[in-house]
Protein: TolC family protein
Organism: Sphingobacterium anhuiense
Amino acid sequence: MNKIFYLLALLFIPVGSTFSQNVLTAHDAVAIAMENNFDVLLTKKDVIIAKENATYGNAGILPNLTANFSQSNSNQNSKQTQSTGEVRELENAKNNSMNYGVSLGWTIFDGFGMFARYEKLNQLKARGDLELKSIILTTVGDVLNMYYTIVLEENLLHTIDSSIVISTDRLKTAENRFQIGKASKLEVLNVQVNLNADQSLRLKKLETIANLKTELNRLMARDLTIDFKVQYEFQFNENLEINALLEQATNQNIELQLIKLDKRLAELEQKDVRSKRLPVVRLNSGYNFSSSESSLGFVSQSNARGLTYGVTASMNIFDGFNQRRSERVAKQMVEKASIEIERSKELINATILKAYQSYVTNISLTKLEERNEKIAKQNLNITLDKYKIGTISAVEFRDAQENYVNAMSRLKEASYQAKLSEIGLKELVGNLDL
């Protein structure tokens, strides 16, 4: 029995201690995903675009300066009858004109709509930052969930390996008993069937692990064929408190922050709509040059240059009640955003409370399964001693073996669920640290 548990201990030595160069930690997986993940990269581009759009010029606050140039030429057969009755006629009469200059236009007042639009652009930039944070949070959660799923499957693989060790030793015992006439050939065959079943289960588990590693490589946006080891221990925080989580969620939950920001955008849209009731005042100025030539006419050539300036003002008096409709719609959008905030608060708090209950339950299950695993180990020890002296059958020993293997599996599963519960809670709060 000591030999068996010595072999089991070897199986559960972290492989990373022997092959540390191939170990991928959870922190490393997240870091690689943050650098390569396509969703993160695409969202970062959206943030840059929103930042580029948040300018005074895009909001209509700055003036527009335009350079103009035009030239026209004509070659015509002309015939003119003067008021005196004189007829003037010229074939291939040439007429040329050219104009160039600069013009300045500046809206200096539009009912303060330009300032509302500028703040809206900045809020959209802030929304882009929040969306990036949301994508990062989701990606980190996906990577960690996938990583610890691999950790679970690796641990279950080691559990299967431990069962194979026990079955192999049991097969040797059954063969020895058969050789000395204390067991039948049927017992040997039954033990061999059990060993084959464990080996078959091991092959399926290896396939599952390989597929999971491919999926994690995809999340990290790197070569899908890269193989790696993982750290086999589940380390989770047992001290999360519900009141602290709810308080953090009020200020850090991404979904709630996005809805609050949407309300602010609705308020700015309402302000922009209301600004259209007020007049729009625009300054106009320019400096222009013009030149023209005519082969036939009172003026054969003219040139002009100089400054032009002026002011225009316009005001909406009646537009078929569309202004009133737009204001009412904008008001409803603000009120709708307020309701969305309250609904989201309640939904988020309810989700956190349910997730916290699962977290507490999984922590308790982990502690219970730790005790069960110790009991199953003691039971297997006693059963093996009895099996070797022939006081119990191979079937009874197989039951004890399966109980021990199942106890180890349940312990790993409970630890895995506790870790996932912790990750889920932190993701809901909006602060998923490693």
Notes: Residues 1-21 have pLDDT under 50 and may be disordered. The longest strand covers residues 87-109. The chain has one domain: 2-36+110-279+315-429.
